[in-house]
């Protein structure tokens, strides 16, 4: 039995941080970072059956073209992803009354819709990126046993290419769900490696008043290639989503609307339009899937 100190439930029986019960979520789930973006998606639903919010975690479940879908805000960073995916998995794969894992496990479909900056000059603003791999620079997933789901060869190549300081922890690489890639991908989408940082400033190479450990890291990442894959963009959630989903048996895919290009120094003239187009595209694909 899983102890109450390990799986914490609220007095109403909902999981601690998300404030959800099993009946509140669909098996198709869209992640967004910003809680205000939840309703930018659910405004397209035919109906909404459930809505709640606790802290930065806002959840709405409803129907879009006959498909039951949950939209949830995760907040920023890999630490929040650790909370969200573990508690979602508990909702479908642990009996919350007996506190025992279920014999028959459920696989969720998790699709992240986010915004990001491109690291490559040939991936312009207002384009879409599908993350074939998540490259975790954050070290969160190293708390788990990940060798069976990670790409050790790509990890070692990245460490060598960047002369990575292992005092920061070894980066990890996790692939997206092949099932969801086939369902969502289009020829117009850019594909590659999405790097996931554990912070916004120093971990992504930004310098304000503090010096950073490797001022050349971003330029090293720009020209890293592994097979046909290059690092397309840098954000703060994808690798953690891929890692925990793979470990727990869920399908995960991350999609980003590119609103900035750090190589060219450009920013989208209408970033909301790009995000809205990615939302509409993704909802249609889920409904058809």
TrEMBL record:
InterPro entries: Nucleoside_phosphorylase_d, Nucleoside_phosphorylase_sf
SUPFAM superfamilies: Purine and uridine phosphorylases (SSF53167)
Catalytic activity of the protein: uridine + phosphate = alpha-D-ribose 1-phosphate + uracil
Pfam families associated with the record: PNP_UDP_1
One Gene Ontology molecular-function label: purine-nucleoside phosphorylase activity
GO biological process, one term: purine nucleoside catabolic process
Coiled-coil region(s): none
Residue ranges annotated for the Nucleoside phosphorylase domain, each copy included: 29-276
EC number(s) on file: 2.4.2.3
GO terms under cellular component: cytosol
Protein name (database record): Uridine phosphorylase
């Amino acid at each position: 039995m899983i102890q109450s100190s390990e799986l914490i439930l609220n007095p109403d029986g909902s999981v601690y941080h998300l404030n959800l019960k099993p009946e509140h979520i669909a098996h198709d789930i869209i992640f967004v970072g910003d809680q205000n973006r939840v309703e930018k998606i659910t405004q397209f639903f035919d109906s909404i059956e459930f809505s709640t919010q606790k802290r930065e975690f806002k959840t709405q479940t409803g129907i879009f073209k006959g498909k039951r879908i949950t939209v949830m805000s995760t907040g920023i960073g890999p630490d929040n992803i650790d909370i969200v995916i573990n508690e979602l998995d508990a909702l479908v794969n642990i009996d919350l009354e007996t506190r025992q894992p279920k014999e028959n496990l459920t696989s969720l479909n998790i699709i992240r819709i986010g915004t990001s900056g491109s690291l490559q000059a040939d991936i312009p603003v207002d384009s879409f990126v599908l993350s074939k791999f998540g490259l975790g620079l954050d070290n969160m997933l190293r708390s788990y046993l990940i060798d069976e789901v990670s790409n050790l060869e790509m990890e070692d190549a990245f460490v060598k290419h960047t002369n990575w300081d292992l005092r920061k922890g070894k980066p990890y690489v996790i692939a997206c769900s092949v099932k969801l890639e086939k369902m969502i991908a289009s020829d117009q989408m850019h594909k590659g490696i999405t790097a996931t940082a554990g912070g916004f400033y120093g971990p992504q190479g930004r310098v304000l008043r503090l010096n950073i450990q490797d001022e050349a890291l971003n330029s090293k990442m720009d020209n890293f290639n592994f097979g046909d894959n290059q690092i397309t963009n840098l954000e703060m959630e994808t690798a953690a989503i891929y890692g925990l989903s793979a470990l727990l048996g869920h399908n995960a895919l991350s999609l980003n609307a590119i609103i900035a290009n750090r190589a060219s120094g450009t920013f989208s003239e209408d970033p909301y339009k790009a995000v809205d187009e990615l939302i509409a595209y993704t909802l249609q694909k889920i409904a058809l899937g």
